[in-house]
């Protein structure tokens, strides 16, 4: 398992994942920034205006519920940073950092969010869920998404079931205790 790390410090929570991918940086860059490529591995095609201040629109709930975020930084093919569900989590940022390696590239994904935003989410969108449950769900979600990205490079499928999702969420919950 390519587990991520979850840290809480000074009112901020950071999810961090490192993946060593056997594809050149330019291929991975395209996979995370080109809407058609993202749609191939993420399950739905976003709208991406790839420039600082541009919109990053993802679709949820059978592809009909748009979430409009903003692109913060774009430094091809090294850094892509955007907000994440900014209407609920105004502090949340996601950064995709790519570094070339001899075998391909290293992808480091970080998702930073304030505890205050997590608290607000537990009272609105995720009403009834504790902050710990929201955090473990986010941790498992990013993990699974990166598994899908990695599998897309070699055409393999990623097994996924409610039991596997629960096991992964439980593994992230254990990191938080």
From TrEMBL:
Species source reads: Fodinicola feengrottensis
Give the UniProt family note.
Belongs to the AHA1 family.
Q: Which Gene3D superfamilies match?
A: 3.30.530.20
Q: Please report the name of this protein according to its UniProt entry.
A: Activator of Hsp90 ATPase homologue 1/2-like C-terminal domain-containing protein
The parts of the chain that form a coiled coil are none
Indicate the segments forming the Activator of Hsp90 ATPase homologue 1/2-like C-terminal domain, all copies: 24-152
């Amino acid at each position: 398992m390519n587990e991520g790390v979850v840290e809480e410090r000074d009112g901020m929570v950071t999810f961090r994942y490192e993946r060593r991918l056997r594809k050149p940086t330019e291929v991975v860059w395209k996979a995370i920034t080109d809407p058609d490529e993202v749609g191939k591995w993420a399950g739905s095609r976003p709208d991406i205006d790839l420039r600082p201040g541009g919109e990053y629109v993802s679709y949820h709930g059978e592809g009909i519920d748009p979430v409009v975020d903003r692109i913060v930084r774009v430094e091809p093919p090294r850094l892509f940073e955007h907000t994440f569900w900014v209407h609920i989590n105004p502090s949340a940022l996601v950064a995709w950092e790519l570094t070339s390696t001899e075998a391909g590239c290293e992808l480091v994904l970080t998702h930073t969010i304030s505890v205050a935003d997590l608290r607000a989410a537990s009272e609105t969108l995720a009403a009834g869920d504790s902050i710990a449950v929201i955090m473990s769900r986010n941790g498992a979600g990013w993990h699974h998404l990166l598994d899908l990205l990695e599998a897309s490079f070699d055409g393999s499928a990623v097994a996924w079931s409610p039991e596997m999702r629960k096991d992964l969420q439980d593994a992230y919950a254990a990191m938080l205790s």
